[in-house]
Amino acid sequence: MIKKLQIVIGICLFFGTMTAFAQGAGTNDIDGDGVSDLFRTKFSSSDKIRWAAKQSSDSTLNNIGLLGSKGNLTAVVDWEDGAAITRLSSSISGSKVIWSAKTASTGDPLGSFTFGRKTDTLITGADFDGDGLPDAVAVRGVGTKLRWFIKHSPLGGGSTEDQIDYGDKESGKPTYMDLEGDGDWLGVADKKISNPSQYILRLKNPRTEDTDTINLGTFAGTPEPIEDATGKDVLALVTKTSSKTRIVFRNRFGTILDTVEFEHPGNSQDGKHVIGDFVGGDPGEEVAVQVGTEMKVYNPFSETTTTVTNFDGTPVGRFLVAALENKEECGKLNMPDGPFGNVWKPNSDTQFFAVAIITSALHKQISSVAVYKDSNNQFIKNLTTKGFGNPDPGGVEREHFQDYSITGAMYKSLYGAIRLRVNLNNGKCLTAVITDPSIRVD
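The structure corresponding to this sequence follows.
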């Protein structure tokens, strides 16, 4: 999370209750009242991205203008001093990523730069060098590790870049978290080696090389940082189904601080969320969850909920961990392909959870099988090899890849359509889209 030194006298809006304190910036504040505003996007008739912000000071909608188009990634980032709407798009060549930003208060161009590849996991909102300005981050697999490419303060006068190898390429989900209030740590969510149904967050301080771990329980998603009243982060573990959004908050020791649920009608917008300091005077930050045309703003430190009405569009915040779509790099995994080929089972016969059975034509050629959300290429998890069985008519057995925490029905409610990616030992890959993971495909 971004940290800046602010002097606060008399009132506590975003920066806490201390008179002079290094606290969270990344305020996404367009009206200058010191409280985060709720940004949203909608598509124009020509599929351009139209930005606006619901101002905290008077609840009016500030129409910012256009930036980006369908297929871009979006975030709101305080690149310099004040909120900037930001889009990440593919270059003309299609392989690189262009980061573009406009000042939210005026709509004027702030700048742009080229950084990362569209197959990378792209991250916004983190400050790894602790200078109070956000860095641009691109994470990709190199060998068996995750390599973090960090461009420090790219629109705030910075020019340095770092490369850090941290995390497992096959199973790690990159994120970040500020443990001490002085800058973010690299974070990689992964399964526990001793118990694959349990997850942990592995952390590394890029400034000191210190490491730490936090227990995530059975949460298999990407943890998100949320700042407490002292300027340090705790974790928000957000799970969304078609009917409700559940958030578990854990501190740096893995202790559950609070849990909250919001029920919603189940349309495509419901359950989307952003994090910021949306309520002046409350300790720390809040999570705002979309429920119909309202945003339910929940503070886990005061355990209070505030409702923002007349919110229409897709909420956008500072936290982004995603890749631009890039499905053409893999060959096609044929599904369905008959009774002795590839199979997706929403419930395995022995473990209850989902399982993928891969054709005997790829016998002992597979390095891993991963699951992605099809709509935005979001990595969900790697399945665990369970051994061989169910031979074809020639007696060649097929390899089974088991999920130990999610059923096919749960995949459908959490992610909609999914995509299986079979990574081969020769470096190539094959993919297949499972439109309805709750139904068997063979």
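The first strand starts at residue 3 and ends at 7.
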